[in-house]
Design a protein that fits this description.
Largest sheet of chain A: none
Number of helices of chain A: 2
Structural class of chain B: alpha+beta
Low-confidence stretches of chain B: none
Oligomer: heterodimer
Distance between the termini of chain B: 75 Å
Radius of gyration of chain A: 17 Å
Structural class of chain A: mainly alpha
Mean pLDDT of chain A: 86
Shape of chain A: rod-shaped
Number of helices of chain B: 3
Mean pLDDT of chain B: 90
Helix content of chain B: 10-25%
Largest interface: A-B, 19 and 30 residues
Helix content of chain A: over 70%
């Protein structure tokens, strides 16, 4: 059964939010993730 | 089946998140540095020029070796704009050069290349040797990012013997020429030693690109001063 486009859009937005959340967490810990002081 | 679909989509989303982080590290950090450089340029322009040295003996030209006044050095806080570095051979910052900041801690290097300071209040990474400044008969050390934060020293490996490095300061303009380049271990701190009788400039950065396993050290000697 074909899903309505609104449902697909909401799902896509949720996955995008997860991507952004992962990036934000990594940026927050960037000083520990990136090697050295003048990398 | 539904679980596998959700799990797969989660991994794809996390992957995109990692790609966003890499994009931020490589290019996004550059926006921060560009903004800081703009601020530092204004800070630098607002400072007055220091008086030029005069000859000790009448009729003789003044010594080409001279640094900033001690009072100014003592007033410097971490991250303050101290001088400009230009390296035409590698078109440093599209020819504009970079404002160098006082200090080489992580926060300072995010704004631009850093001048290695003597140990004073507020500086974590510092040398116990006497602080050296451009124009002085001593070894001036400037560290900078090789990648990320506008990558000031990205192409520094392209420098060869004889290439010129220009330093513009409030106490004079100095030209250095590259004499040598070598990769050393990050634990090798001999570069900050003041065991020289020349006016030297040493640029350090990480090596190879995207790694902190070594430091690429570029040595230069002063040839002109004005």
């Amino acid at each position: 059964m074909k899903r309505p486009w609104k449902s697909r859009l909401i799902e896509l937005a949720l996955w995008a939010a997860l991507s952004v959340a992962v990036a934000v967490v990594m940026i927050h810990f960037a000083d520990r993730l990136l090697p050295g002081t003048n990398f | 089946m539904a679980f596998l679909r959700v799990f797969g989509k989660s991994l794809i989303s996390i992957g995109f998140g990692v790609l966003l982080f890499v994009g931020w590290a490589l290019w996004g950090t550059g926006f921060y540095t560009a903004k800081q450089q703009n601020r530092l340029e204004h800070q630098y322009q607002a400072q007055p020029d220091f008086p030029q040295p005069t000859a000790h003996v009448k009729g003789h030209s003044p010594s080409p070796y001279h640094g900033p006044p001690a009072g100014w050095i003592d007033s410097l806080k971490p991250g303050a704009a101290v001088f400009r570095i230009r390296i035409p051979k590698i078109n440093l910052n599209d020819g504009k050069g970079f404002m160098v900041v006082e200090g080489v801690d992580e926060e300072e290097l995010k704004a631009g290349p850093g001048h290695y300071p003597a140990c004073r209040v507020g500086f974590l990474l510092c040398t116990h040797f006497t602080e050296a400044w451009p124009g002085e008969k001593a070894r001036v050390v400037v560290s900078g990012h090789r990648t990320t934060y506008l990558a000031p020293f990205w192409a520094i490996n392209e420098l060869g013997k004889g290439d010129k490095i220009y330093i513009d300061t409030h106490w004079g303009n100095f030209t250095y020429v590259v004499t040598d380049q070598q990769a050393v271990l990050p634990t090798d701190t001999t570069i900050v030693r003041q065991d020289t009788n020349d006016a030297e400039l040493v640029l350090t950065t990480c090596n190879p690109r995207f790694s902190a396993s070594q430091r690429l050290v570029t040595y230069a000697t002063m040839v002109t001063s004005s």
